[in-house]
TrEMBL record:
Top enzyme category: ligase
GO cellular component: cytoplasm
Keyword Transcription regulation assigned: no
Chain ranges of the Mur ligase C-terminal domain: 311-424
HAMAP family: MurD (MF_00639)
Location of this chain's protein in the cell: Cytoplasm
Protein's organism: Halobacillus litoralis
Protein's name in the database: UDP-N-acetylmuramoylalanine--D-glutamate ligase
Key word Hydrolase present: no
Length: 448
């Protein structure tokens, strides 16, 4: 496996372990760099942590003493650690560079790098790009916020291999020299203000995906997003737009076809993924891979067979004329409104979850096609009130996902859509949104 060559720092602090910190520490140790680890709750008896210690890592647990910065030249921090952390604030005072592990991946990967960011749709778009390149029988690896640590994946990539990586604003904020060959900027909504504090800070973090690009590189961007377009005067890369509104440039679509510039790619009716949001993701992926020279046949094959990333408007199955979709990742009103706009058929909506005090008033206009609602979790009663305001007469409150699916099926008729799109986080009843979605899928398959 590859290691860092000519790395200019001799002593590095890895702040926060988890997957990304463990991978970064392992890479640094293998590269002959002296490593100190600071993690509040690290279990030194865990095999992965014990291996780092056995290789010479110095580890400090149970607190964040400022002394962990003594003799440190570089800090690799876990993306989720805020910049108000005392260690980070002190590192800034001492003018020590602070990065996330994707900066290390940029040092390692020698081939083409495609990076994807946006407030919504990152995982689906990253997966589509990866699958399209793979279908074209080109060497490709996938990494980043999609579940595979970038600096770990980059250790085994080759110079002729494309690496596709999904990146959050947290990860991008910790970059200095990171430079994708092709960057993809999907959209820009209000998000993560508890971390970034202001919308401007959040937007600037996202814009770092193209900050180091040159005229040899490409930015694929959403031409329908005015906030993204406001950054274009600063961009040095070649610009390739995608749009569901404008025609003729970059990737676009009319009522019948998907195009790249003036070239027809495929018929829209043959695409498995549903919804306007997914169409944007598809067009972004098409633009990225066409820039990369991928054949239309490979694009078409993926779009005819790809049923979606798990828990993101994922088609589950058809039973007795009913279509079941798992959108457990819809943990806010915006995501659920996008899901509801994806269907022309009547919808039985399964919704509810953790109560964060959010008003559901803005969900009401999007419930026009909903014929029945099954609600659960802490927000169940508030969801029932929302259904009443939308004029939905068929409603029921349940305790379990099995009950929810059974009741939804009883409300349904042939050609209806039964949709799990909760508009709430899952932590009141489930450990993760994935667990919630898996329970839905299990209940659907057990339906008699």
């Amino acid at each position: 496996m590859k290691t860092l060559k000519n790395f200019p720092y001799a002593h590095v602090l890895v702040l926060g372990l988890a997957k990304s910190g463990t991978a970064a520490a392992q890479l640094l140790l293998d590269s002959g760099v002296k490593v100190r680890i600071n993690d509040l709750k690290a279990d030194i008896d865990q095999p992965a942590v014990r291996q780092l210690i056995d290789q010479g890592a110095d580890i400090v647990t149970g607190g964040h003493p400022l002394s962990v910065l003594d003799d440190i030249e570089y800090v690799v921090k876990n993306p989720g650690i805020p910049y108000e952390n005392p260690i980070i604030e002190e590192a800034v005072t001492r003018q020590i560079p602070i990065v996330t592990e994707i900066e290390l991946a940029g040092f390692l990967h020698e081939g083409q790098l495609i990076a994807v960011t946006g407030s919504n749709g990152k995982t689906t778009t990253t997966t589509l790009i990866h699958e399209m390149i793979k279908a074209d029988q080109q060497p490709v690896a996938v990494a980043g916020n999609i579940g595979h640590v970038s600096c770990e994946v980059a250790r085994s990539t080759t110079a002729d291999e494309t690496m596709v990586t999904e990146l959050s604003s947290f990860q991008l904020l910790g970059t200095e020299t990171f430079r994708p060959s092709i960057s993809v900027w999907l959209n820009l909504y209000e998000a993560h203000l508890d971390y970034h504090h202001t919308l401007e800070n959040y937007h600037r973090a996202k814009a770092k995906i193209t900050e180091n690009q040159t005229p040899e590189d490409t930015l694929v961007y959403n031409a329908d997003d005015e906030k993204i377009k406001s950054f274009l005067p600063e961009v040095k890369a070649q610009l390739v737009p995608f749009s569901i509104k404008e025609r003729g440039q970059g990737a676009w679509a009319d009522d019948e076809m998907i195009y790249f510039k003036e070239e027809p790619i495929m018929n829209k009716d043959e695409v498995v993924l549903v919804g306007e949001q997914n169409l944007q993701n598809i067009l972004a992926a098409v633009a990225a891979v066409k820039v990369n020279g991928i054949r239309n046949e490979s694009i078409e094959h993926v779009l005819k067979t790809f049923t979606g990333v798990p828990h993101r408007l994922q088609f589950v199955t058809e039973k007795n004329g009913r279509l079941f979709y798992n959108d457990s990742k819809a943990t806010n009103i915006l995501a659920t409104s996008y899901a509801l706009k994806s269907f022309r058929q009547p919808v039985i909506l399964l919704a509810g979850g953790l109560d964060r005090g959010t008003s559901f008033e803005t969900l009401v206009p999007h419930l026009k096609a909903v014929k029945a609602m099954v609600v659960f979790g802490e927000t169940a009663d508030r969801m029932l009130e929302t259904a009443g305001k939308a004029g939905i007469e068929k409603t029921v409150k349940v305790d379990t996902m099995k009950e929810a699916v059974d009741q939804a099926y009883q409300f349904s008729e042939e050609e209806d859509v039964i949709l799990l799109s909760p508009a709430c986080a899952s932590w009141d009843q489930y450990r993760t949104f994935e667990e919630r979605g898996d329970m839905f899928i299990e209940a659907v398959h057990k339906l008699k």
